[in-house]
Amino acid sequence: MMPFDRREFSRSAAALAAASGLPVAALAQAPQAGKPKGPTPQRGGQLVVAQCSANRRTASASNARHPYFFVDLSTRVAYNCLTWVNENLEWQYELAREIVPTDDQMNVWDVSLREGVLFHDGREMTSADVAASFEAHRTGAVFATQIQKIETLGRYKLRFFLKEGNAEFPFVLAEYQHGIMQADSPSRIGLNGIGTGPFKFVAADPNRSATFERHDKYWRKGFPYLDRLEIHNREGQQEAALNGLRARQFDAVLTIDSRGLRQLQRESDLDFSVGRGSYHFVIQLPKHPGSPFEDRRIRQALALAIDREAIVRIAYGGKYGWVGNDSHLVSTDPSFLYRPAKRDVAAARKLLAEAGYPKGITLPTLYYSPQLPEVPIYFQVLQQTVKEAGIILPLEERPADGYAAFRTGDNDLSKGKFHKFAMTAVGSRNPGISLARMRGEFVESGHWRGPEQDRYMDLYRRAMVTRDDTLRKRLYHEMQGILQQEVPAILPAGGDSILVKRKHVQNLAYHPQIWSIRFDEVWRSA
Fold first, then answer.
1. Is 503 buried (19+), middle (13-18) or exposed (0-12) by CB count in 10 A?
2. What is the DSSP string of 302-326?
3. In sequence order, what are the beta bridge partners of 321?
């Protein structure tokens, strides 16, 4: 598990760790209400924020308040989860107060809840609400599909049964889609937008904006400081968002690229915050019948032909990006395994010739969506660099609306309507989640099949029931080595999250996980 400051743990936590057989580090401390560093916070006021990365499903007026469809993935404005991942990518308790596995198989976990947590309408949260929420998440949220069933063990306790062991299950409970909603029928749960978060909905304009006001009975005593919060979706509209900042329409703009940062660095009334190792892009390589990517040599050639350093240099200014290793892990993850194979155009050409393309190959169209400001530049650099290896790579930009459904298709090889050769943004997560995304049934793996995929999943299952951090990390390294040889998908390079804010905005720092940013402790100075 992730390390924590042991001074923050009570004797009861230590006793619980001993009883469960887990190291004390596995029992993360809850977020504590306390005075932020710096000047004394002031209560009141409004904050208006623009977000340049919305990454959301198409919403309508009927579902715009649901945690799956919210305008910018800042779901912890209106909702909480059972756990939270902090800025150091360590999990902490949020609505849960204890989480322990029941045995060495790591596939049954008991969760005890905070008592006295109130929803926005004043009703207390209980295990019935959590159970109903996860019944919905099991079918509506990809990372919750590992949950087989949930049982309530009283008003404030539940038991989660997993399909397989997962030593890192507390991280799963922190996923942004796993917000706790009021119990309701499966067709209605979450649509009212009532959560336990620091702010409650006032209005929602689907895919455009959302307005909130303070939840006065928030369970984190003393928070939030702000009276009101507005979040505006400016996906793919960085210049418009920055112009709004200059015109004082916005107090902060989230997820700008390094070009936007350079434009604003000389303005004395602005501050910046960087979340390192935040996100990157997965290029899914479909392996359906007739696809060139069924041939591993073509996948390897494409991976070797990409000039990853050029992407970092041009798309990220060389300072706010990093080279990927063709796994979903980000470079700041302690388990990240650096890719030994550097760019090698000659080796790429040789692989293509062996695959029957001595004069080069024209690949199918690669589709992308401008989910982040630098995406068009990123893929233009990629397109130009692979030409040197004789790879012609047509590109097509698709609108953000409907893009997820477009790239995924039916996701059923038997129907003959296959997913696309396409990209999508992926964020910083723990290895248990990140490496699971190369399962053969997942679109992001391109439906990777064969003995190496079987070996990969065997290593994954072993890792998920391995308590020892060092041993689990070794298994993670072996898995990444398989990915770098097999290349089921390509993740060439990634970037850091950057926000810009006016200096009257206090205690707003970006989070490596864009969706985990919280506004609880943000306040306005005079």
1. exposed
2. HHHH--HHHHHHHHSTTTSEEE--S
3. 495
pLDDT at 406: 87
* Interstrand relation of 493-502 and 108-113 (parallel, antiparallel or unpaired): unpaired
pTM above 0.85, yes or no: no
Buried b (16+ CB within 10 A) or exposed e, 129-147: bbbbbbbbbeebbebbebb
Give Rg (Cα) of the chain.
23
Contact 251, 523 (CB under 8 A): no
Distance between CA atoms of residues 273 and 61, nearest Å = 33
Q: Are strands 321-323 and 505-506 parallel, antiparallel or unpaired?
A: unpaired
Could you tell me how far CA 305 lies from the centroid of its own chain? 28
**From the first residue on, what is the mean pLDDT of each consecutive set of 10 residues in the chain (526 residues)?**
32 38 40 57 96 74 86 83 92 97 95 98 98 96 93 98 95 95 94 96 90 97 97 89 95 89 85 92 93 97 98 93 96 94 97 98 96 91 98 95 82 71 93 94 92 97 93 97 98 94 94 91 92
The Cα 467–Cα 26 span in angstroms is: 10
Distances (CA, A) of 226 to 91, 233, 248, 506: 25, 20, 18, 11
Between vectors from CA 471 to CA 463 and to CA 329, what angle results, nearest 5°?
Answer: 60
| pLDDT of amino acid 417 | 67
What are 141's two structure tokens?
């949220």
212: its two tokens: 């909130």
Report the 10 Å Cβ neighbour count for 401.
15
Q: What is the pLDDT of residue 251?
A: 97
d(CA 39, CA 138): 44
Which residue in 211, 207, 236 sits closest to 59, CA to CA? 207
Q: Coil, helix or strand for 211?
A: strand
**Separation between Cα atoms, residue 501 and residue 348, nearest integer Å:** 44
Residues 6+ apart with CB under 8 A from 514: 53, 73, 254, 255, 275, 278, 279, 427, 497
Closest CA to 370 of 379, 361, 359, 381: 379
* Ramachandran area for residue 507 (φ above 0: left; ψ -120 to 50: alpha; else beta): left
Query: Are the C-beta atoms of residues 257 and 498 closer than 8 Å to each other?
Result: yes
pLDDT, position 264: 86
**How far is the C-alpha of 36 from the C-alpha of 104, rounded, in Å?**
39
